[in-house]
Amino acid sequence: MDNNNIRQILLDEISKTEKLIIEYKDLTKPIAPDVAIGRISRMDAINNKSVAEASLRQTEEKLRNLHRVFSQLGSKDFGLCLKCRKPIPIGRILIRPESLYCVNCAK
Q1: What are the boundaries of each domain within the chain?
Q2: Cα–Cα distance between 38 and 14 in angstroms, integer?
Q3: What are phi and psi of 105, to 5 degrees?
Q4: Helix (H) or strand (E) holding 100
Q5: Fewest C-beta atoms under 10 Å: which of 29, 72, 79, 92?
Q6: How far apart are CA 39 and CA 34, in angstroms?
Q7: Tens place of pLDDT for every residue, the chain, 107 residues?
Q8: Backbone torsions φ then ψ of 11, nearest 5 degrees
Q9: What does the DSSP assignment read for 12-79?
Q10: Nearest by Cα to 13 from 70, 57, 58, 54
Q11: CA 62, 29, 58: angle at the middle one, nearest 5?
């Protein structure tokens, strides 16, 4: 697999992740107390908001890692595990392009 294919995969993943962040930000907006949705429904909405906030944090971290990996594309550091400095298998990079660690070090 050449750098152009990997570059396109990274750009596609960055684009999808940025769209997800926008969606999660919409889901994490404050719930107005004057909205009459009922006590149980309000509790569900607050719980859903908490789940969306956790997803937002994870997605923002993924985007940071994607940008980091993208910035390394073409350099000698691209595809190397941050911990053990061994090459990350191309299959892992294709499945999880935001991976900074090999499978062994990610445990």
Answers
A1: 3-78
A2: 38
A3: -80, -20
A4: none
A5: 29
A6: 12
A7: 688 899 999 999 999 999 999 999 998 988 776 666 666 777 788 888 899 999 999 999 999 999 999 999 989 989 999 999 999 998 998 899 999 999 999 88
A8: -65, -40
A9: HHHHHHHHHHHHHHHHTS---TTS---HHHHHHHHHHHHHHHHHHHHHHHHHHHHHHHHHHTTSTTTT
A10: 70
A11: 15
Please count the residues of the chain. 107
Rounded to whole angstroms, how far apart are CA atoms 40 and 105?
Answer: 43
Nearest to 105 by CA among 95, 65, 92: 92
Does this model's pTM top 0.70? My answer is yes
**Does residue 102 contact residue 86 with C-beta atoms inside 8 Å?**
yes
Residue located via tokens 């941050």: 82
Structure tokens at 36: 């009459």
User: Which residues, in sequence order, are CB contacts of 4 under 8 Å at separation 6+?
Assistant: none
